[in-house]
Amino acid sequence: MGKESFQIGITGEIIAVEYLTQKGLSVIDRNFHSQQGEIDIIAKDGDIIVFVEVKYYSFRSYGSPLGSVRKSKRQSIIHAAQTFLYKKNLRQINCRFDVISIYRDSGGKTNIDYIKDAFYVN
Amino acid sequence: MLIKLKSSALNGLDGSIVEVEVDSYKGLPGQSIVGLPDTSVRESRDRVKFAIINSGFDFPPGYFTINLAPGDIRKEGPLYDLPIAVGILSSSEQIKSDLFDETVLLGELSLNGDVRPIAGVLPICISAKKSGIKKIIVSKENADEAALVSGLDIFAVNSLKETIDLLNGNSTLAPHKIDLLKFFNTSPDFDFDFSEVKGQQHAKRAIEIAAAGGHNILMIGPPGSGKTMLAKRIPSIMPPLTIDEALEVTKLYSVTGLLNEKNSLITKRPFRTPHHTTSNIGIIGGGRIPRPGEVSLAHHGILFLDEFPEFERDVLEVMRQPLEDGKVTISRAMATITFPAEFMLVATMNPCPCGNFMDKVNPCVCPPYKIQKYWSKLSRPLLDRIDLHIEVPRLKKDDLFTLPNGDNSKIIRDRVQKARKVQELRFKNTNIHSNSRMLPKMMREYCRLETEAEEILKSAIYHLKLSGRSYDRVLKVARTIADLDDSEIIKAGHIAEAAQYRSLDAKGADLSV
């Protein structure tokens, strides 16, 4: 990953964290890595643990943000989530997968699409 | 929380209760459906999710396991959407109901939460009643069909929301009722009438006999002589279905998914006209999980095969067994199912490929081998099973203007019905409805002949080279003719008329060799 796109990714995550906090979620971890995947943001929404995938575009792109979270990506997120729950010894707790997409339109305005419960296991 | 609800599975024409168990644990979100579901059942989880959300409820978090018990019956079709959705909402305590034990839920869900109709509601309701179910929740479109079964409370719902209100006790929805007799009290209304056919008295008489006794009939004639016209008018002289027959036929249409809201009970005798390109599976029924074919959809009605020899030979031969037994048993890896198939076969054909063989006006242009090939499609065993063979000659050009119209359908139907009444009395307490289905021991009892009639029959056997089976058929047809004549004993005239309808036994053999 080039330094520039890494920077862009960081910017996106900062905006996302801000947005989620505003929504009343409390962020508990960021950029959690397992062997086969990674999760951008892990937060708590009440009793529920939320795994958030952040999609950041600095220009308007086509299609829904979910469209770019393909099956292999979902699998890696799910794998990372399982690792997270195991490592933190969290059992009997409800979880959710969300996707948040952030893009700048031609006017430079930042738009945020937040998709709750975006996908599930199997 | 573990929730148990009831739904149903179809196996041929019988339903059986399926228990839908829903439970969840806290963890990564997901769903799995177990209990031998097929693809359409597996797909239900996506429909269910959106139906719940779009009905204004929360899709609860957690991992859901849905078990369809018993686990050794294959479940197919989208009918489990509604019980699964209700189960998921109940396990997250958004529905609280104590009706689950005595209620069967059936219905497909659309993404916006509407309940859609499913196939096979009638047989499911019949078997649900037998297993002690009190209430059925179905879509509005299926409600009439479900209400045909008396002694059940049928609740017709439009949407998942209405179902939930009903189960939560927040609804004033009354059980759906229909008046079964209303379906039968309407006077029969047909598009065609026999008085529209000029001349052809001989053919009309044969058709009347066929209708009166449920006999199979084959009409042979040049193009344009009125074969198809005659055949299309046969429904107008058939006696109306009894309630029991109507329910039997409706069951078959229900599992095939051919019923709709306006037409939830079949009250007219079926008239099936499959095209001659239909495959043998299409005729007999089949599929991975067997479905009724044309012979079963024509149960208690008419199977009309226009251009008989144009059908594939295989297709014609597969009909031999149902023609004899009145039912078909279809075996597949998944299931073995028996469908009833008591139909009256009406077939038409030309005497040769060009159609003009033996016609006095237009000469036939077919070389003999083509005529032979044409006829060889019809095997002797098949022709044996057709009780009446009649020739429908071309009318002379003046006949179209001068010949009388003959009796209209109503008059003929009254005669047919009278003959059917006699048969009904004869076969009461058996599951036989017409002379054509008589068993051998019944024939000995009911087909008593005059001495003179016996002589005629003997000479007919000799001259027409009748096989054992066609001998039986002659007797049955003679019995029907006697019934039309209101005669207890079969007289010489009856046998003579019946025997002349076997003309093809002698001539057909000559034509084909």
Automatic annotation (TrEMBL), chain A:
InterPro entries tied to this protein: Restrct_endonuc-II-like, tRNA_endonuc-like_dom_sf, UPF0102_YraN-like
Keywords, in A-Z order: Endonuclease, Hydrolase, Nuclease
Top-level taxon of the source organism: Bacteria
Entry's Gene Ontology molecular function annotations: endonuclease activity; nucleic acid binding
Family in the record: Belongs to the UPF0102 family.
Name this protein carries in UniProt: UPF0102 protein FD145_541
Species: Candidatus Saganbacteria bacterium
Lineage of the organism: Bacteria, Bacillati, Saganbacteria
TrEMBL record, chain B:
InterPro entries, per database record: AAA+_ATPase, CHLI-like, Mg_chelat-rel, Mg_chelat-rel_C, Mg_chelatse_chII-like_cat_dom, P-loop_NTPase, Ribosomal_Su5_D2-typ_SF, Ribsml_uS5_D2-typ_fold_subgr
A GO MF term: ATP binding
Pfam family, one: ChlI
Domain of life: Bacteria
Domain AAA+ ATPase stretches: 213-396
Family statement drawn from the similarity comment of this UniProt entry: Belongs to the Mg-chelatase subunits D/I family. ComM subfamily.
Name the UniProt record assigns to this protein: Magnesium chelatase family protein
Organism: Candidatus Saganbacteria bacterium
